[in-house]
Design a protein that fits this description.
The structure is a homodimer of 361-residue chains. Chain A starts with 13 loop residues before the first helix and ends in a 10-residue tail after the last strand. A six-stranded mixed sheet of chain A has the order 10-7-11-12-13-15. A five-stranded parallel sheet of chain A has the order 2-1-3-4-5, with helices on both faces. The first copy, chain A, has a two-stranded parallel sheet with strand order 6-14. Chain A is an alpha/beta fold and 361 residues long. Chain A is built from twelve helices and 15 strands. Helix content of chain A is 40%, strand content 14%. The first copy, chain A, folds into three domains: 65 residues, 434 Repressor (Amino-terminal Domain) (Orthogonal Bundle); 116 residues, Response regulator (Rossmann fold, 3-Layer(aba) Sandwich); 140 residues, Rossmann fold (3-Layer(aba) Sandwich), CATH 3.40.50. In chain A, a hairpin with a 2-residue loop joins strand 8 and strand 9. In chain A, helix 2 crosses helix 3 and helix 10 crosses helix 11.
């Protein structure tokens, strides 16, 4: 009984099928698993018995013959972040058109969970994995997929030295443009807040963990350099994972001798927490401080004030990720707007609303 | 070659392992599948060969012995809707503490896709399924799970006549309270907008498809009745699935001889589209029209004006769903705040902000 879920009928086994068919268990297993030699007569007996008993075919054994489960596995960093919901929708839309199902796992941006997720998807024998890696350094599990030729596509983030295709959006020019706009308004001290936890791993102010965040910063630094402004790495802040931490970080920034006059939020979740922190301090945007965010989830245009954002084609990027995975599998991908196949990397663009103004003092 | 994914190394098979171990294939299969008799000596030879070749254990065969894959399958209506992202996070948090992985599939609120999703999860042998059913009527696939004692928990929605536990939030009292507040301000014509597509299936104004939407309406009707206001079923509108359809519906409502003076949006996605439709028509909230929404995703307090909402404990409800599923499986669920076990149904509550005012005219 310990092996049987409470109240659940016992699973029909190969032994049950063999008994009803009047054949040996090995014969039944071969017939059901479609391997080895079974006489046509016995095969039919086994299949008839299996149907009568409601034996659930062993999908795994079957897939080892066809080589396919027609399932894509997707591993995302944070399912509560609109970015991943939207990208997953893009993946699913393309996969469904190709007759593929999509299975999703969430890592909470935790590498240990990601390693477990890869294990689960390997055991569930998905045909390919689409992964937004939580770390660019703890990547042995992804390297192992590459080494064993397990189809892998990276989502949103690249990993240096890992030869896997990546569906990523070029965000650097738009990040640079947004920063240049702030500089043109007179801002010199522009802070950046990200949920990324770097554990102190930065290099020249660039977080070493996640390429998509590094690219945001890279664009900001390029704009500062072009304007001859020396970047202040103390204005780059990480670990804004919730309201409390974001509020704490904002408090630290505002207590500096030279506080920032503008804030750049790394994603839609961060900017929501930044809005809360500003509101609780009675700070107005843009009169007291300017604010730019990445992503455009549909809410940013209705906030008070409407937010200037770097908008990303997230759904299209998800579609590209699915196309890349299916292409590795040799699946013909029908449908319109295939950007990934033409070497045209998707690009983000600046959407100007009302959250930028001149520095307060 | 047709059976091998392009560029992918051939899978290590039982035959390969048997050859290296110097045993028969049936013996290797028994040792690897942990069934039948194998001498200890041969078993060790097989396992050593399997390890050396990197043979991936057949999770399915293994699970047929333990009866468990330690995986929960979750089927949600719309992964882009914050509700489901948040609920899924709750499910995952509890599952992870119990050592269970969570696999997620999205149906786009499409029953055909839901049927396929149940098939996929059955084949992946998840131990239990948590499903937000897209329909309360096309439920044969869910009835089949119940009939075969496959552990099933419904999420967010109940199905009359289907004896499966449901993790649902009691939203009726808060919906009634929100409507009573509107009535107290002087509103008599209060419209309701939902993304639900009813295909005309309503009964006394109640959509027959989804219980959580029916409960919203039920609360509204109770408040109207208590105030002696005869409900106008033409003010209940469905199919607000995107900006265009929501804009069209709002246009129809506003062109009525007696247009609504207040709007109730069924969820956070709908209210975003309502805000867009109001903005494009130059209508101000609450001066021109009052607005209430269900859910509180974190953005509603920062819109212009901040929105009055019926807030639901979505994360806690996801946690409850996971606890119910694990309890069916006989898994001890540690952790705090177990509401589901005590018959205390989670309840929604009204959060008053600034989107309600007296009727315009």
């Amino acid at each position: 009984m310990a092996d049987t879920p409470a109240g659940r009928q016992r699973e029909v086994t190969v032994t049950d099928v063999a008994r009803l068919a009047g054949v040996g268990k090995a014969t039944a297993a071969r017939a059901l698993g479609e391997y080895g030699h079974v006489s046509e007569e016995k095969r039919e007996l086994v299949l008839a018995a299996a149907e009568r008993l409601g034996y659930r075919p062993n999908e795994l054994a079957r897939s080892m013959n066809t080589g396919r489960t027609r399932t894509l596995g997707v591993i995302v960093g944070d399912i509560e972040n609109s970015y991943f919901g939207n990208a997953t929708r893009g993946i699913t839309d393309v996969a469904r058109r190709a007759g593929y199902d999509v299975i999703l796992l969430n890592t909470d941006e935790n590498v240990t969970v990601e390693i477990e997720a890869v294990r689960v998807l390997t055991e569930k024998r998905v045909d390919a994995m689409i992964v937004s890696p939580a770390s660019a350094y703890a990547v042995d599990h992804l390297q192992h997929l590459v080494d064993t030729n397990y189809p892998l596509v990276l989502l949103d983030r690249t990993i240096a030295g890992l030869p896997a295709p990546a569906a990523v959006i070029d965000i650097v020019p738009a990040a640079e443009e947004a920063t240049a706009r702030l500089i043109a308004l007179g801002h010199r001290r522009i802070a950046f807040l990200s949920a990324l936890t770097t554990d102190g791993m930065t290099f020249h102010g660039l977080p070493l963990g996640v390429s998509s965040v590094a690219e945001r910063i890279s664009g900001m630094l390029a704009a500062l350099e072009a304007a001859g402004i020396r970047p202040d790495h103390d204005l780059l802040r990480f670990g804004a994972v919730d309201r409390a931490s974001t509020d704490r970080i904002l408090g630290e920034l505002l207590q500096r001798d030279a506080p920032p006059t503008a804030l750049v939020a790394s994603d839609s979740t961060v900017v929501r927490d930044v809005l809360a922190a500003l509101k609780s301090r009675g700070l107005r945007v843009p009169a007291d401080i300017s604010l730019v965010s990445f992503d455009d989830t549909g809410w940013e245009e209705f906030t008070d004030p409407p937010l200037t954002v770097v908008s990303q084609p997230v759904h299209a990027n998800g579609e590209d990720a699915a196309r890349m995975a299916l292409r590795i599998l040799g699946v013909d991908v029908l449908g319109t707007g295939d950007s990934a196949g033409h070497g045209d990397r998707l690009t983000a663009h600046l959407v100007e609303r009302s959250s930028l103004g001149p520095p307060a003092s």
